Automatic annotation (TrEMBL):
Residues 10-203 form the Thiamine phosphate synthase/TenI domain. CDD domains: HMPP_kinase, TMP_TenI. Pfam families: Phos_pyr_kin, TMP-TENI. 4-amino-2-methyl-5-(diphosphooxymethyl)pyrimidine binds at Q40, L41, R42, R43, K44, D85, T124, K153. SUPFAM superfamilies: Ribokinase-like, Thiamin phosphate synthase. Its EC number is 2.5.1.3. The gene is thiD. It comes from Veillonella absiana. InterPro entries: Aldolase_TIM, HMP/HMP-P_kinase_dom, PM/HMP-P_kinase-1, Ribokinase-like, ThiamineP_synth_sf, ThiamineP_synth_TenI, TMP_synthase. GO terms for molecular function: hydroxymethylpyrimidine kinase activity; phosphomethylpyrimidine kinase activity. This is Thiamine-phosphate synthase. 2-[(2R,5Z)-2-carboxy-4-methylthiazol-5(2H)-ylidene]ethyl phosphate binds at T150, G151, T152, G180, I200, S201. Residues 236-478 form the Pyridoxamine kinase/Phosphomethylpyrimidine kinase domain. It catalyses: 4-methyl-5-(2-phosphooxyethyl)-thiazole + 4-amino-2-methyl-5-(diphosphooxymethyl)pyrimidine + H(+) = thiamine phosphate + diphosphate; 4-amino-5-hydroxymethyl-2-methylpyrimidine + ATP = 4-amino-2-methyl-5-(phosphooxymethyl)pyrimidine + ADP + H(+); 2-[(2R,5Z)-2-carboxy-4-methylthiazol-5(2H)-ylidene]ethyl phosphate + 4-amino-2-methyl-5-(diphosphooxymethyl)pyrimidine + 2 H(+) = thiamine phosphate + CO2 + diphosphate; 4-amino-2-methyl-5-(phosphooxymethyl)pyrimidine + ATP = 4-amino-2-methyl-5-(diphosphooxymethyl)pyrimidine + ADP. Keywords: ATP-binding, Kinase, Magnesium, Metal-binding, Multifunctional enzyme, Nucleotide-binding, Thiamine biosynthesis, Transferase.
């Protein structure tokens, strides 16, 4: 079996002092149900007898083999690689998917000879030199730690964050973090470049192994998988709104951004001087190119000026079953320039709204969609309800420009939910709407639920405004490059 990087995300190792046989297998199965992506059977010396804690059970070769076969069968069922710690011969005998060996165990070359090229070999390497050597000698991945103080190996001194990151960034094979990792400290390893989290106690000491693993898996996948997003929008030559704002926002979120350009605008902080639409056919070709290769985990839609462009986007989103979709119904730029044809509005409402996961109108746009006038927070609530009742998609109604606070309103099947924000005294708000919708799409791409994605995006917008970038002669752009912490 050839190892793929994403298979290391949730690396579950069996506990040293726990049940044997079927009981262990049952616990491993719960972790598989919860989303374990790889299992390592690790049995050292003797283990405590679960029926009498004053006694120990010696792990005989027979017992080890019996357990290995049970867990191997489970892993096959869940299509997850099965590794054995240390015991190269047992791995060879039962044709396990791989082994994990330590610095003091059999050399990689020898293990390779016994196991062959297709078997995964992982090596423990807690120092940079060891990690580089492991790579050079042909290891498929490296396990490094302890990243935190651990009860499983009392003697392990934790690596510094920097030392661990250096190991991750110095070798082209994936690095799994090990040692004292828990659901609550794993965030600290984000952006180190690690491939996965090896966990024992935090999973097996939990009364509900499946739920615990699934919470850990959600966090792990968010941090280690590459996430992708597509923006379908217009280019802003001044770089503060449209495609340019979207790609910068995605990058700030560590999401790989792609684009399908609907129009070129000659624009700066003082306004739009000219618009040049792409042809519907060419827009369709861009969408085909993207969707047939790198599938986006989320889509953001911005400026679409004509009925024909809207129709081709709707057709392609349906064809490729694209979701989730964040639709920013761009009608008017901050500067007041109209960015959509009169007769495109019907197509937007009839063809595109039904495909949206969430739409993000500002107040003037919500007035058009609801045919209501919005002057107060109560008007916002009413209009959002009208739009929800008419079109059935979640609405984020942005209070930014018109009503003098920074509170936005979410209306979904559960009714009203206000997202409050501190109004920042910054006259430079060019591209706030584009940036907000791209931040929502980025968070959705990473797997956050919709409401949390919106709340995180709102906090990101506040950060980009607070940075007080001041460029251009009109309403200037935001500081997209602000550092986003996990706890944003
Ligand atoms: N001065 C401000 N302080 C804090 N938040 C703000 C401020 N201005 C706008 N926002 C926030 O920015 C987000 C975008 O809302 P806004 O109403 O500006 O969108 P928009 O009109 O579509 O923008 P765009 O000009 O890009 O089209 C909202 O979350 C809004 O609350
Ligand atoms: C290209 C483009 N898209 C959207 C907006 C909305 O602000 C803008 N100003 N420019
Ligand atoms: Mg807008």
């Amino acid at each position: 079996m050839k190892l793929t990087r994403s298979q290391l995300a949730v690396y579950v190792i069996t506990p040293p002092t726990y049940p044997t046989g079927q009981e262990l297998a049952d616990q491993v199965e719960q972790s598989l149900k919860g989303g374990a992506t790889i299992i390592q059977l690790r049995r050292k010396g003797s283990i405590i007898d679960p029926k009498d804690s004053t006694k120990t059970i010696t792990i005989t070769p027979e017992l080890m083999r019996e357990e290995a076969l049970l867990i191997q069968a489970l892993c096959k069922q869940y299509n997850v690689p099965f590794l054995i710690d240390d015991n190269v011969q047992l791995a060879a005998d039962i044709k396990a998917d791989g082994v994990h060996i330590g610095q003091d165990d059999m050399p990689i070359a020898e293990a390779r000879k016994i196991l062959g090229d297709d078997v995964i070999i992982g090596l423990t390497a807690n120092k940079l030199d060891d990690a580089i050597r492991a790579y050079e000698e042909g290891a498929d991945y490296v396990g490094s730690g302890a990243v935190f103080a651990t009860g499983t190996k009392n003697d392990a001194t934790p690596l510094s964050h920097k030392a661990f990151e250096t190991i991750c960034r110095s070798i082209p094979i994936p690095v799994v973090a090990i040692g004292g990792i828990t659901e609550s400290n794993m965030d600290q390893l984000d952006t180190t470049g690690l491939a996965g989290f090896a966990i024992i106690s935090d999973i097996f000491n939990d009364a509900d192994i499946e739920t615990k693993t699934s919470r850990i898996a959600q966090k792990a996948n968010r941090m280690v998988l590459p996430h992708t997003a597509l923006t379908i929008a217009g280019s802003d030559s001044s770089g503060g709104a449209g495609i340019q704002a979207d790609l910068k926002t995605m990058m700030a979120h560590h999401v790989y951004g792609m684009s399908a350009i609907t129009a070129l605008t000659a624009q700066n902080t003082t306004g739009v001087t000219s618009i040049f639409n792409t042809t519907p056919q060419f827009l369709g070709e861009q969408l085909d190119a993207v969707f047939t290769d790198i599938r986006p985990d989320a889509v953001k839609i911005g400026m679409l000026s004509t009925k024909e462009l809207i129709q081709v986007v709707a057709e392609k989103l349906r064809q490729y079953d694209a979701k989730p979709v964040v639709l920013d119904p761009v009608m008017v730029a901050t500067s007041g320039a109209r960015l959509i044809d009169e007769n495109a509005l019907d197509a937007l409402v009839n063809d595109l709204l039904p495909l949206a996961t969430v739409i993000t109108p500002n107040i003037p746009e919500a007035e058009i969609l609801s045919r209501e006038s919005i002057k107060t927070a109560a008007d916002m609530e009413h209009a959002a309800k009208t739009i929800f009742d008419t079109y059935g998609c979640t609405i984020l109604l942005k209070g930014g420009h018109t009503i003098n606070d920074a509170n936005d309103l979410v209306y979904d099947a559960n009714g009203i939910h206000w997202i409050t924000g501190q109004r920042i005294q910054n006259p430079n708000t060019h591209g706030t709407g584009c940036t907000l919708s791209s931040a929502i799409a980025s968070n959705l791409a990473k797997g956050y639920p919709l409401l949390e994605s919106i709340e995180r995006a709102k906090r990101y917008i506040s950060l980009t405004l607070s940075a007080m970038l001041d460029l251009g002669q009109g309403s200037g752009p935001l500081e997209h490059g602000v550092k986003i912490k996990n706890e944003l």
